[in-house]
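Figure 2 data, in text form.
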Amino acid sequence: MYLMKNRKPFRVYTVALGANPIGHKQRQGDERTPEGKYILDYKRSDSAFYKAIHISYPNKQDKIRAKRAGVNSGGFIMIHGQKNGLGWLSFITQLFNWTDGCIAVKNNEMDEIWESVEVGTPIVIKP
């Protein structure tokens, strides 16, 4: 993941994605990370994971796609640190995709992201 400022990357992070990382998120429970343009629309310090910044999935197109398919689009997709109390395992957990569709980083990296990113910041998630 790249943090950008003035259209240039200033920090780069290795991330863990959904456990089924190939393709755009289609429905709740598919363990995919959404792809496309979204907004980081709020922060949560009281998450089950070390800090969390919400990604505005599902957007209008995601909702239409899910409705046409007759499925729940899912939601509650975040950038977050490690599961609370398990941050010490990040040297292992960040080696594979393990989330339900979120973007996970190490806790110290989440601190940097938390301080660098304001609510309302756009995010582009590419395959």
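Caption note: DSSP finds three helices and seven strands in the chain.
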